[in-house]
Amino acid sequence: MISPDVARPEVPLAVPSLKPPAASEALEHMNFRQGEFWRAIPAYRDVDEAVFLDHIWQGRHSVKTPDELVATIQDLVPPSFIEDVRAGFHRAPMQVRVSPYMIASIDWTDPYSDPIRIQFIPLASRLLPDHPKLSLDSLHEQDDAPVPGLIHRYVDKALFLPLNVCPVYCRFCTRSYAIGPDTETVDKAQLATDPKRWKAAFEYIASRPELQDIVISGGDTYQLSAKTLKMIGETLLAIPNVRRMRFATKGPAVMPSKILTDGAWLDALTSVVDQGRAMGKDVVLHTHFNCANEISWVTEKAMRLLFERGIFVRNQSVLIRGVNDDPRKMRLLVKQLGYLHVHAYYVYMHDLVKGVEELRTTVQTAIDIEKFVRGTTAGFNTPTFVCDAPGGGGKRDVHSFDYYDRENGIAVYSAPSVKPDRWFLYFDPIDRLSPAAQARWREPGEQVAMVRRAMAAAGGAA
Question: Is residue 17 part of a domain?
Fold first, then answer.
């Protein structure tokens, strides 16, 4: 009870505002695709929700060939598009594998421009010549592999690659030298895909006390059985020097229903996370959303379940032309991820990957988009834009270059704590340069001269 001697504060009838009410665009990130959207696909027309969400059904009905694509989408596209796809499959360095969830998320009224089609289904008509400085293993991961399937580049972190398969195959995969079956253009390198090789990786990690952070990737940890995921997690937790662990998967973006329907896999991940927390060790999930079109009510439900289990999720995107290289599209993705309790961590410059030159963007594009995105949401939900420096320099803040020749598309980076006294070069896609610069790149002698001038300007040897 309030004493009659205490003055009551006056409550204003209306709260003054320094800003006008937010436009509807500011709330767009709270809206997700609803309903049984997959029924618009002819092959899924009679598939009910329980069947469509089943992860086993999703895996079995993934599209792997042009004929399977035709059988799935039927008359949604003209014959000319299918012929373009057939030719694209023939030239692709990555095997094609697209989940029904992704097929159902594509706008088949405009497949040439659809951001999901761009990521997973190659079209011969859109391919560009590879950059002359491209190499199959552009990040030189194999140079930093002390044993098969383990990359030790940074002092305190290693990348463990226990498998070479994924629920889908991304055309832009930086590990196209090893992931998936051989193709007509690439014979794949071998990773640590059997327990004997895993043992060698574990022994190496245990022998190096400076290794405190282990990323488990591949391939994709979505494809590990529950038993294997738990075994790998518990083995790494038992190594005294391991303090942090990240399970990497694109699964939540391309097949979110697995989190809802594969209870054994989710329980295995939860068990490793809980054991780690009890031991004072950090175990998290790293995933890979590239655009808002990948997100639906299924995603929202799956991410909520991870949140309820206490599983911390970070996201790593790749900056891809036609997918998310628009400032507003990137802002929407970042804000949607934050709404789903997925922390936007990195946006990578597209690596110099064989056969996908039309997907790459310029360093300047990344700088401009980061400037636009920063300040639109909380800092811990705002990604850092990075260039994974070709040649093994590791992740560099995209605008931390030592020199950037915008005219010729050459960015020079140094990595003093990773590989001191070396320079690493990232090259913008040639078709985005001026006609004069494109002409210079057609001349081998000019290529050498441009690189030398950029290195000299960065402070390296000419």
Answer: no
Residues 155 and 111 in one domain: no
Query: Does 19 fall in a domain?
Result: no
pTM of the model: 0.91
What residues pair up with 347 in beta bridges, in sequence order?
317, 385
Considering the domain architecture, whether residues 65 and 184 belong to the same structural domain is answered as no
* Secondary structure of residue 343 in the 3-state scheme: strand
What DSSP string runs through 163-185? ----SS--TT-TTTTTSSS--SS
What does DSSP assign to residue 349? E
Do residue 82 and residue 151 come from a single domain? no
CATH of the domain at 353: 3.20.20.70
Nearest to 349 by CA among 385, 399, 377: 385
234: burial class by Cβ within 10 Å (0-12, 13-18, 19+)?
A: middle
Structural domain count of the chain: 2
**Number of CB atoms found within 10 A of residue 408's CB:** 23
Domain stops at, among 368, 400, 432: 400
List the domain range (segments joined by +) for residue 396.
Answer: 141-400
Axis-axis angle for helices 263-278, 226-237 (nearest 10):
10
Tell me the pLDDT tens digit for each residue of 306-357.
999 999 999 999 999 999 999 999 999 999 999 999 999 999 999 998 889 9
Helix (H) / strand (E) element for 233: namely helix 226-237
Single residue among 126, 158, 192 that ends a domain in this structure: 126
d(CA 326, CA 311): 30
d(CA 378, CA 184): 46
Q: Which two tokens stand for residue 130?
A: 């590879």
pLDDT digits 0-9 by tens, 182-241: 555 555 455 556 788 899 999 999 999 999 999 999 889 999 999 999 999 999 999 999
Q: Which amino acid is at 69?
A: L
Closest by alpha carbon to 316, among 293, 348, 339?
348
340 contact partners, CB below 8 Å, separation of at least 6: 295, 299, 300, 303, 304
Angle separating helix axes 363-373 and 327-339, nearest 10 degrees: 50
- Please state whether beta strands 423-427 and 150-151 pair in parallel, antiparallel, or not at all (unpaired): unpaired
Is 50 exceeded by the pLDDT of residue 1? no
**196 and 75 assigned to the same domain:** no
**Cα–Cα distance, 292 to 298 (Å, whole number):** 13
pLDDT in tens, 41-82: 999 999 999 999 999 999 999 999 999 999 999 999 999 999
